[in-house]
Each structure stands twice: as C-alpha cells, then as structure tokens.
Amino acid sequence: MTTVLITGANRGIGLEFVKQYAGEGARVHACCRNPDKAEALNALKGDIVIHGLDVSDFAAVKALGEKIDEPIDIVVANAGAGGKDAGDFGDIDFDAFSRLLQVNTLGPVATLEAFAPHLKKTKGKFAAISSTLGSIENAGGYAPAYSTSKAGLDMAMKSYAALLAADGVAVGPFHPGWVKTDMGGPSAPVTPEESVAGLRQQIAAMKPGAPHLVAYNGEVLPW
Ligand SMILES: NC(=O)c1ccc[n+]([C@@H]2O[C@H](COP(=O)([O-])OP(=O)(O)OC[C@H]3O[C@@H](n4cnc5c(N)ncnc54)[C@H](OP(=O)(O)O)[C@@H]3O)[C@@H](O)[C@H]2O)c1
C-alpha cells in the first residue's frame, strides 16, 4: 500500500491530490490549517487521516513528523500563498514578504526535514509544488515576492535532492500549470483534475539525484 502526505490539503490542488491518491487506494495523511472547517476534505471517502498543520509553524511541522510513526512513500509539499499582501515594487510590505518566505520557501524545507526519516524507509519521493514564476531565467519583474519565494524553494529542493540521493530519496520542484483554483482564478486554463493527474505521473517518474523544474505536463522548465 502506498502512503502519501499532502500539505494544504483542504482546497485547490492539495484537495485534488487527496481525492486522486485516496481514490486509487492510497493511505493519505492530509494536512491543513483548520480541519474543523475543511468540509470538502472531511467529506472525502477513503483511508484519509486529517491533521491540523500550519507549515510556517516549524515546531508543529517537526512535532507532526515525530507523531506519524510509519513509513511514507510520497510527500507533496503543496501548501502555498500568493503573497498579494507583500505588495509590489515601491510598496513592499516586508513583514508580509517575510511571512510569504516562511510559508512558500521554509514551510516545504521544514516539511522535508521532518519527513526525511519516513521517506528514507521507503526510498520515497518528496515533491514541492513550486511555480514557473520561480524561474530565474524567465524572471521579468512580475510578482517579485512570490517569485522570490518559489526561486528559493527550487534552490532548496535542488540542494536537498543532492543531500538525500544516497538514501534513495528523490526530491524535486514541480510547476502545476496555471490552475483554476482560488489562487489561479477562474480564467486559468488548467483544471485541478488535469494538473494533479499530470503531476502524479511526474512524481511517479522521479529518481534520486539532480532534479529539474518540471511542469505537470512533463515539460522541463529553465531554473
Ligand atoms: N493555481 C495556480 O495557478 C498555481 C500556479 C503555480 C503554482 N501554484 C502553487 O500550487 C500550490 C497550491 O496552490 P492552489 O492553486 O491550490 O492555491 P489555493 O487554492 O489558494 O490553496 C492554497 C492552499 O495552501 C494552504 N496554505 C496557505 N498557507 C498555509 C500555511 N501557512 N500552512 C498550511 N497551509 C497553507 C491553504 O490553506 P487555507 O485554506 O488554510 O488558506 C490552501 O489549502 C501553491 O504552492 C501555489 O503556489 C499554483
């Protein structure tokens, strides 16, 4: 049986990951900030264990790692924020920018630190949901705070991929496409179903060692 852990599992791409993995019979640890309010998640059928988790509470992430005492095959660090409150050039809110880095960059790092022992037992996979906006080569000044947070995430994933390769653990960042969620908005061309079906294929193909930034449809994007 495959065991999966997903952060930000109550809506959007994270909720769809729970649906699809649980739907094919996996055991899913579904993490979200407010389990009591996670109606769509609570309504899902399957082997789903729901945990309260704010990924920017690093002590809580570590404690959850200690509490879940079982091997895990796949961790999807999906939780993320758009960072609109961080502002733009000339009007940056540095407190909000710092909070964004804590959620989008350090949250996945804390998640990987906490669950590396579980993944080592299965020679498992750690997938971080990043964004093409984190590509340094493509950077054009759009959403500087969000882009910086995802570029930092990509760097962390490439570093940790090297650190964990000898243990047989694959680590890498993925771009989900422009997806119709609360973050992506109604004009986005990709549905959560399409995005997650593609991401699951890319995750299944992950190998230990140097990763690429890979899109949901398999396209390799520039760092
Ligand atoms: N949609 C797109 O077009 C797109 C494109 C590129 C990358 N992405 C990335 O894909 C991931 C999922 O995005 P989405 O489109 O599904 O966004 P979404 O619909 O806005 O959902 C975001 C999820 O992250 C959770 N979250 C936010 N801050 C958190 C925190 N501190 N701790 C734990 N959970 C937290 C939210 O929980 P609450 O409900 O508690 O707020 C929610 O479950 C994000 O990393 C995002 O950056 C999305």
Quickly list its features.
16% strand; eight-stranded mixed sheet; 223 residues; alpha/beta; 40% helix; binds NADP nicotinamide-adenine-dinucleotide phosphate; Rossmann fold
What do these coordinates show?
With 223 residues, this protein is an alpha/beta fold. The protein has one domain: NAD(P)-binding Rossmann-like Domain (Rossmann fold). The chain contains six helices and eight strands; from the N terminus they run βαβαβαβαβαβαββ. The protein has an eight-stranded mixed sheet, sandwiched between helices. The protein is globular and about 50 Å long. NADP nicotinamide-adenine-dinucleotide phosphate is lined by residues 7-8, 10-14, 32-34, 54-56, 78-81, 103, 129, 131, 176, 178-179, 181-184, 188.
Terminal Cα separation, in Å?
34 Å
CATH class: Alpha Beta
Number of helical segments? 6
Largest sheet: 8 strands, mixed
CATH topology: Rossmann fold
- What's the structural domain tally? 1
CATH architecture: 3-Layer(aba) Sandwich
- The averaged pLDDT comes out at 97
Give a short synopsis of this structure.
The chain has 223 residues and is α/β, with parallel strands linked by helices.
Question: What is the element layout, followed by pairings?
Answer:
Blueprint: E1 3-6, H1 12-23, E2 27-32, H2 39-42, E3 48-52, H3 58-67, E4 74-77, H4 94-122, E5 125-129, H5 144-164, E6 170-175, H6 192-204, E7 213-215, E8 220-221
Parallel strand pairs: 1-2, 1-4, 2-3, 4-5, 5-6, 6-7
Antiparallel strand pairs: 7-8
NADP nicotinamide-adenine-dinucleotide phosphate binds next to α1.
